[in-house]
What we know:
- Helix 2 runs antiparallel to helix 3 (78-97).
- This protein has helices at residues 9-38, 47-75, 78-97, 116-119, 122-142.
- Helices cover 73% and strands 0% of the residues.
- By secondary structure, it is mostly helical.
- It is extended and about 90 Å long.
Amino acid sequence: MQQPKQNSARDTDDSVSEFVLRTVCSVEMSLASITDWFKFEWAYMDYEGQKSSERLYQRTILLAAAVGFVVGYYFQQFSYTVGALGVGSILSAILCGIPWPTFRKHPLKWQPVRDAEENGDPADVQNDAKKTSVDAKKKKKQK
């Protein structure tokens, strides 16, 4: 006859620590993948897209408020008005909060990167300007 194996406190601690370690590692990996996901160009909205998104947001909220007011007035229930406004807010958040491709039709055209050796370093230009102004003050004092 075999006796049932009893779990010691150490076995339990080991299994708990393994579980915690696996959980922490999976959370770290998921956070890393989320941050990598937002580094892509498609996760951003251009200026024209922001403008059209704002207009859509305002119109969606205004329409929801108007429909909610009419329905609430007809049924004499203020909760219908508030509910319609809540649904409109959620709908506008989904429509306008996500950078859909329609909001990314006008990407920014960045200027090419200029080499500091070709055009001079801006810090050097500022230092040169300070030196010349200090030299001019010294010459003025000498006269």
